[in-house]
């Protein structure tokens, strides 16, 4: 932990791109989303919901048709089907062992574009094929699988585990937990623990993926100019996620749609201070 700098709300506020009068939906950035599966359609719904609530020019959902229908039922603002995007969010709500051939093809096509990419749960195996600036978002069990280690080893020193993963895999790693650790290949080390423990509930990570995807899509030019920006955006996503959870919780339980609904006011508060 000593190597890590705490990423503060003011740091996160500085990493929200506020649209300007000259912006349109494309200049703000389009996030392509390949998430969800027949088994876990909710993960796709939650990620898209969180991305749109964080602010992005457009979300293009490119997953299975049945999941796309669920996404559109909740969020008609999302556009289903392929098209040009500035960043990708891939892998929430799918099991890599049972990925369909069609999903594998969509992922391969996305990764070929070498754009800034967020890889979540069901897509960690693809990190070697992701040649754009890439951030992985594992929880402890997932990082243990990626590193062929054990949960106990990760939990004993999560900051060191995240740093080791970033250094050996050559990507940015956001290790999720009560404190989340972001480690980047260039020695970047940031930590955040803004979330209440009420956030330990299913779907929380799917929402984090959406928040981060939106931040990445709206900063794609900055990331391409300086890949270290990706780590700062990952830490900013943790801060926003935690503060929105705190607002949704108010000291009690929360659902992930409540968290998503709290994101806009969380951002406007951050920007006002
Ligand atoms: N709304 C949605 O669509 C959501 C979809 N989601 C999707 O779900 C998938 C799995 O995600 P995850 O994080 O649970 O995966 P993972 O690390 O493999 O954990 C498995 C480990 O947990 C353990 N375990 C299971 N039950 C347990 C219990 N009652 N009490 C204690 N332990 C228990 C189990 O142990 P076992 O039962 O095998 O002994 C195993 O070790 C993933 O594709 C994700 O995207 C989620 O994002 C949620 C919202
Ligand atoms: N005890 C806790 N306190 C605060 N935040 C937590 C706690 N446990 C988990 N979280 C946060 O909740 C999210 C859980 O992500 P993940 O395990 O991927 O959930 P899911 O797969 O259900 O979407 C992460 O952002 C993590 O930082």
UniProtKB/TrEMBL annotation:
GO-annotated molecular function: ADP-dependent NAD(P)H-hydrate dehydratase activity; ATP binding; kinase activity; NAD(P)HX epimerase activity
Gene Ontology annotations of biological process type: metabolite repair; nicotinamide nucleotide metabolic process
Key word Hydrolase present: no
Assigned EC number: 4.2.1.136
The keyword Cytoplasm appears for this protein: no
Residue ranges of every copy of the YjeF C-terminal domain listed in the record: 8-270
SUPFAM superfamilies per UniProt: Ribokinase-like (SSF53613)
Residues given in the record as AMP binding sites: 176-180, 205
Enzyme class at the top of the EC tree: lyase
Catalytic activity: (6S)-NADPHX + ADP = AMP + phosphate + NADPH + H(+); (6S)-NADHX + ADP = AMP + phosphate + NADH + H(+)
InterPro entries in alphabetical order: CARKD, Ribokinase-like
Cofactors demanded by this protein: Mg(2+)
CDD domains, alphabetized: YXKO-related
Assigned keywords, A-Z: ATP-binding, Kinase, Lyase, NAD, NADP, Nucleotide-binding, Transferase
Binding site for (6S)-NADPHX: 43, 93, 139, 206
Subunit organization: Homotetramer.
Similarity section: Belongs to the NnrD/CARKD family.
Stated role: Catalyzes the dehydration of the S-form of NAD(P)HX at the expense of ADP, which is converted to AMP. Together with NAD(P)HX epimerase, which catalyzes the epimerization of the S- and R-forms, the enzyme allows the repair of both epimers of NAD(P)HX, a damaged form of NAD(P)H that is a result of enzymatic or heat-dependent hydration.
Protein name, UniProt field: ADP-dependent (S)-NAD(P)H-hydrate dehydratase
């Amino acid at each position: 932990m000593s190597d890590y700098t705490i990423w503060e709300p003011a740091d996160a506020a500085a990493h929200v791109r506020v649209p300007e009068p000259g912006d349109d939906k494309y200049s703000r950035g389009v996030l392509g989303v390949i998430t969800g599966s027949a088994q876990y359609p909710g993960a796709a719904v939650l990620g898209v919901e969180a991305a749109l609530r964080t602010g992005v020019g457009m979300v293009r959902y490119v997953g299975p048709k049945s999941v796309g229908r669920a996404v559109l039922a909740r969020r008609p603002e999302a556009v289903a089907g392929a098209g040009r995007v500035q960043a990708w969010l891939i892998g929430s709500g799918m099991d890599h062992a049972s990925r369909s051939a069609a999903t594998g093809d969509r992922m391969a096509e996305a990764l070929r574009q070498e754009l800034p990419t967020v890889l979540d749960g069901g897509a960690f195996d693809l990190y070697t094929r992701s040649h754009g600036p890439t951030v992985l978002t594992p929880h402890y069990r997932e990082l243990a699988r990626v590193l062929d280690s054990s949960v106990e080893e990760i939990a004993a020193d999560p900051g060191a585990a995240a740093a080791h993963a970033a250094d050996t895999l050559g990507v940015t790693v956001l290790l999720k937990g009560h404190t989340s650790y972001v480690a980047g290949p260039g020695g970047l080390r940031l930590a955040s623990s803004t979330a209440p423990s009420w956030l330990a509930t299913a779907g929380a990570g799917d929402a984090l993926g959406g928040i981060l995807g939106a931040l990445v899509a709206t900063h794609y030019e900055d990331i391409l100019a300086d890949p270290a920006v990706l780590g700062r955006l990952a830490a900013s996503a943790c801060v926003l996620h935690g503060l929105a959870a705190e607002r949704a919780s108010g000291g009690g339980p929360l659902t992930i749609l409540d968290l998503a609904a709290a994101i806009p006011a969380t951002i406007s508060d951050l920007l006002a201070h």
